[in-house]
Amino acid sequence: MTRKISYKTAINEALDQEMTRDPSVILLGEDIVGGAGAPGEADAWGGVLGVTKGLYAKHGDRLLDTPLSESAYVGAAIGAAACGMRPVAELMFIDFMGVCFDQIFNQAAKFRYMFGGKAKTPVVIRTMVGAGFRAAAQHSQMLTPIFTHIPGLKVICPSNAYDAKGLLIQSIRDDDPVIFCEHKNLYGSECAVPTESYTIPFGEANIVREGKDVTIVSYGLTVHRALDAAESLARKDRIEAEVIDLRTLSPIDWDTVMESVEKTGRLVVVDEAHPRCSLACDIAAYAAQHVFEALKAAPQMVTAPHTPTPFSPSLEDIYIPSADAIVAAVGKTIARVKAA
Amino acid sequence: MSDNPFPLSLEDLMRAYRTMRTIRDFEERLHIEFAKGDIPGFVHLYAGEEAVATGVQMHLTDIDRIASTHRGHGHCIAKGVDVHEMMAEIYGKATGSCRGKGGSMHIADLSKGMMGANGILGAGAPLICGAALASKFRGDRGVGITYFGDGAANQGTVLESMNLAAAWDLPVVFVVENNGYAESTSVEFATGVDSYVDRASGFGMPGVTVDGMDFFAVYEAAGEIIRRARDGGGPALLECSVARFYGHFEGDAQTYKAKGENEYNRENRDCLKSFRKRVCDAGLATDRDFDQIDLEVARLIDDAVASAKAAPLPKPSELLTDVYVSY
Amino acid sequence: MNPNIEAIVMPKWGLSMSEGKLTGWLKQVGAKVAMGDEILEVETDKIVNVLEASATGTLRRVVGEIGVIYPVKTLLGVVANDDVPDAEIDAFVANYATPVSDEGEGAVEAAPRYEFIETPYGRLRYAKRGEGDNAIILIHGFGGDLDNWLFNIETLAGAGTVYALDLPGHGQSDKRIAEPSIDWLASSVVAFMDAIGVKSAHLIGHSMGGAIAMRAALDQPSRVKSLTLIASAGLGQEINIDYLQGFAAAGSRKELKPLLEQLFNDPSLVNRQLLDDVLKYKRIDGVETALRGLADGLFHGGWQSAVFAEEVKASKIPALVIWGEADRIIPSAHAASLGPNAKSEVLADAGHMVQMEKANRVNELLLGQVKS
């Protein structure tokens, strides 16, 4: 059956169901149980934002709290994956990747290739991404482009609870290393989610709104901004925007994006990451290279600026791509047509 | 036949010698072949340190796992990785252990518990914690060994992993192969401790230092530590003082070493010479027995080199395969 | 308010519709319309459907704009006789307020769209509409769910209590199918009737659901008042096995779309939402196993293994057969299988999902059957 649950609950449910289904699934991370070795209650936290709360009661020692040693435990998750387990490591914030990056991009990502196809590393690294939490420069980054750049990694970023559950189950069952990016400002968002386990295949973008005039491509939180922009465009300007949620950033569903661009002739890419060498650049460049003839206007990018994430709410609010900025970018693609 | 004063059967003694001899010949032959220019990239030779890989891994089976270093040929051979495939890999051939995609620094054979040589210093330590964790969950009594040099001993990954292994009580043995040089930098310069074994107590685990040029010293110390880990006693540190007979990599002029250092070590600290002498002196075998093994190993290496040279290169299409299981 | 002024509003079809997109006017302002004339096209989150005029008169105003999504009951146009003054029409339009819903917002929230019930065949989902002793049970086909009756259930609710269930392995019911046979599925329907306390009912089955209805009627004749078989399995051997196996195997929109298009006479009816809903169902653990099991178990070797036409003919159960002429899954020739004693109608310009594509005519036929 289906009922409404939050993004956070959907992730918890996916972990719970996969741990129940497959004894090789283990969870490790800082405070994912909470209170390990402390005099108070066991299962004190369930993760810093409570995503894994309650799983310890069901699965016990298959959840491992770790010392504050990202290199060691993320590496251990990768090593265990190469030895037949299906570990899900939680790295609290993607900003902390810096301290364990070698294990991800030199070890997990490369085993299969370096070892001539004779290894598989079914590890999932769950991590929080994104701004809007008033958490400043070291707890707010998107950083997804750093990971999509690396062959051997899969990079996922769901925008809603339904996708979060299906994509996380797919990530756990997948035989390649997956960086699973959870937008911290979506944890409370709810939608209809089946109680049963299900998977969403990687490399399948979701057209969340159909339209004929302009294609808006995004992922994560900014999908919702893009939808807001599309509603405004429809209401005020009678422009029907097609909004595509990439869902999986590597692999990426080029076909769906390019078919849409060929249909609409206009492309706006919205990426909460910084602009240089981002998904936004990637998609704009791909469109210019592959469907140039179909373009009626230059592709537009709406991204965070090339600055660290600021702390003060007044600054952070203008840092994150807004619906207004997306509308303005669409305006640039349509204005060209009118001027022609 | 005399009584056997060693903790190994004669068969195991000869097996240990054959392993060490195979490593030595493999490396010395690479030293020669590399200079000819047929081997791509660069290689780091293990010659001189054979007693460590062999003395430790004589205690292991395929269920046990090792994480190796950039100087990994010896660990591979001692773990039973196919010598022909290793040589072909170093030549970048399609028949190599990694089908020509890894090279010297990435030889692996997971089916043998060899989790890979590693081009990143200290990177094997977290990985072996994961291997040990997997063994712990499965209850298969497998043990993980991670090797690192005196240079990588200062990497955060190694130190974090020692702490993690202690916190999770993992069956991991941390083996420092202290050959005195991190590339060209002396261990005297790079650390404040007199011996890395001093660090073990800082992580709440036992530590032992042995002469890594003495097979029997390594074998006995490793045996006790590995047994303890296998029985659930947790991690330990084994520091082996060794000498590498060649430079950091092939082509290294080694001007940082003292004059005559390599010659002295070859003359007085060669693990093969001392092993052979002790076994012969005990009356368990003769020089003829050892010469026979030497001859067989020489043929094996000759054949490995010849077949590696003759082997096909990877097809261009191989460039794009094996990135993902599915994508 | 002038009783001679008839509002044309965004319809509420079925269980979950809260809004719809006006995709086309089939009549122009000033045109004469008769009750039942097709007046406009609406795209729902399932497929496009046609709204029929509910009054006779002249289409005096067109308020709804093409391409715009409107909440249900939003005023789209006005039909009135020519003698109603323009001023009154304008006043009607100006003063029209879209009702929130029949029962009010709170009531809608409180009344569940679906219910679940435990049976020996697992937990089954169903929708219930209408009231009264005259029970009507809607049984969907292979890979379908109760939403296949989107355009029928509300109309049928006028004739009694309508139940549409998700069969085991389907929709939001439990996904386990212990035995992939019509017998087992028919038993599950009878168990469902037991669970909801329905002694006897009119069974309306679509496709595989038709075969299930026949089997249930033959096994438990006292519990079945009538049979309505829509594009039904079990009336002949031929079936499009490529469709069934393809449907069971399809894992992406690209694979699924051409398959679903085979279900309709007009393939453009298959929109993204319909595809996504089917994909969401198909991606649930156990569904593929259930569907493959059914495809192999019921249609082994590419032929229907359970054909009940002769048994039904020999029984006294009143039967109605409805088919779409352009059915590409089960040939419409099977519509004649029950012989001259059963009423049979083959509708032009309709495919396998005839109850969706020709909902208005199918509803008339269904009402005739369940009221009689």
Question: What is the beta-strand fraction of chain C?
Answer: 15-25%
**In CATH terms, what is the architecture of chain B?**
3-Layer(aba) Sandwich
CATH C-level category of the largest domain in chain C: Alpha Beta
Find the CATH topology of chain B: Rossmann fold
Oligomer: heterotrimer
Assign the structural class of chain B, choosing from mainly alpha, mainly beta, alpha/beta, alpha+beta, or little secondary structure.
Answer: alpha/beta
Rg of chain B (C-alpha, Å)? 19 Å
Basic shape of chain B: globular
Give the terminus-to-terminus CA distance of chain B: 62 Å
Q: How many structural domains of chain C? A: 2
Strand content of chain B: 5-15%
**Mind telling me the CATH superfamily name of the largest domain in chain C?**
Alpha/Beta hydrolase fold, catalytic domain
- Overall outline of chain C: globular
The CATH superfamily of chain B appears as: Thiamin diphosphate (ThDP)-binding fold, Pyr/PP domains
Total helical segments of chain B: 12
Report on this model:
The complex is a heterotrimer of chains A (340), B (327) and C (372). Chain A has helices spanning 7-21, 55-59, 70-82, 101-108, 111-114, 144-148, 161-173, 222-237, 254-264, 279-290, 313-319, 323-339; strands at residues 2-6, 25-29, 63-65, 86-93, 124-129, 154-156, 178-183, 190-194, 206-209, 214-218, 241-245, 248-250, 267-271, 300-303. With 340 residues, chain A is α/β, with parallel strands linked by helices. In chain A, helix 1 (7-21) runs parallel beside helix 7, helix 3 runs parallel beside helix 4 and helix 8 packs across helix 12 (323-339). Chain A starts with a strand and ends with a helix. In chain A, 59% of the residues are buried. Residues 336-340 of chain A have low confidence and may be disordered. Chain B has 327 residues and is of the alpha/beta class. Chain B has one domain: 3-Layer(aba) Sandwich (Rossmann fold). In chain B, strand 6, helix 9 and strand 7 form a beta-alpha-beta unit. Chain B is globular, with a radius of gyration of 19 Å. Chain C has helices at 86-95, 105-110, 153-156, 182-196, 208-219, 241-249, 253-261, 272-282, 287-298, 309-314, 354-357, 359-371, and strands spanning 5-9, 19-25, 32-33, 38-43, 48-52, 57-62, 69-71, 75-80, 115-119, 122-129, 135-139, 161-165, 201-206, 224-230, 319-324, 343-347. In chain C, strands 9-10-12-11-13-14-15-16 form an eight-stranded mixed β-sheet, with helices on both faces. In chain C, helix 7 (253-261) packs across helix 8 (272-282). Chain C starts with a strand and ends with a helix. Chains A and B meet through helix 3, helix 4 and helix 5 of A and helix 5 and helix 6 of B.
